[in-house]
Amino acid sequence: MSTGWSIYIIAIVALNIVGCVWLLWWTGKRRPGDPAPTDTSHVWDGDLTEYNKPMPRWWINLFYITIVFGIGYLVLYPGLGAFAGTSGWTSARQHDAERDAREATLATTFAPYGGQPIDTIAQDPHALELGRSIFANHCATCHGSSARGARGYPDLTDTSWQWGGDPDTVLATVLDGREGIMAPWEQVLGGPRGVTEVAVYVQSLSGTATDPALARAGKTRFDGICVACHGRDAKGNPALGAPDLTDRVWLYGGDYESIRTSISQGRHGVMPAHRGILGETRARVVAAYVWSLSNTPKQPVAASP
């Protein structure tokens, strides 16, 4: 804050304080010629009268005490321009102190799970409850409170995993995020006709009834271009994030128009990294919860205290 603005704010605050004191003093005193408290010239309906009684002195004094309190507050805490206050308090310092206290509590709560394998953590009912809470706060925005996802956001309760569903891979996805890119292929495939043929062939891979001639032509194009990511059997490649095209699980929709759009315009999906948001231990706990949604732990263990 510049010196000019600081002086301006201090002047405004001082003027308001002085104005409040003057207003209380001016309106609270009695002047020569004022009517007595029991005198009035305002009468309604013959017996309703308005008296000229000032506020009790103790009430006026409470207003003065409030002003003194306000001045003391401005001395102790920031409020007078660039003056930081004699107490040294700042909202940032209080925020950091409260954050550190909360982080210490969380560290104690999650300490038993530090470094443990995901499938081991998934056997602890208490850990799964903690993971469910973390998921609700950080993951449900995209994947839904039931973890069943939505268009463009994968269902975490099935067994179809774009990047792999083993415990270590799920943890890596939570910690460091993923970025899946499907490039637009319309020009490479020879225009709209080529896109149509490949879209029809891709539909046929999951058992949808299609035009056999278009599907055969689409297979030829698929085998020349798309196999690089999705493989000759079209079952995908988790190392690249290329999905299996032979099941009935579709991230962006399995109808003809959705598949055609994916091929012609491409797709770009991003799973943000949560290492810096959650830390490794909490990421392990929520990863264990996510993994447990599609995997049954072999042998439950006693919950951690």
Descriptive labels:
305 residues; Cytochrome Bc1 Complex, Chain D, domain 2; two-stranded antiparallel sheet; 11 helices; transmembrane helix; membrane; transmembrane; hydrogen ion transport; electron transfer activity
How far do the termini sit from each other? 50 Å
Read across the widest sheet, the strand sequence of neighbours is 1-2
| Low-pLDDT sequence parts | none
The structural class is mainly alpha
Rg value: 35 Å
What portion of the residues fall into strands of 2 or more residues?
A: 5-15%
Overall domain count: 2
Mean pLDDT: 90
Report on the biggest sheet: 2 strands, antiparallel
Order of helices and strands: HEEHHHHHHEHHHEH
Instruction: Assign the CATH architecture of the largest domain.
Output: Orthogonal Bundle
Would you count the extended β strands for me? 4
CATH hierarchy, class of the largest domain: Mainly Alpha
Helical proportion?
40-55%
How large is the count of helical segments? 11
Return the CATH topology of the largest domain: Cytochrome Bc1 Complex, Chain D, domain 2
CATH superfamily of the largest domain: Cytochrome c-like domain
Written description of the protein model:
The protein has 305 residues and is mainly alpha-helical. Helices cover 52% and strands 5% of the residues. The protein contains 11 helices and 4 strands, in the order αββααααααβαααβα. The strands form 2 sheets. A two-stranded antiparallel ribbon has the order 1-2. A hairpin with a 3-residue loop joins β1 and β2. α1 packs antiparallel against α2, α5 packs across α11 and α7 runs antiparallel to α11. The longest helix has 26 residues.
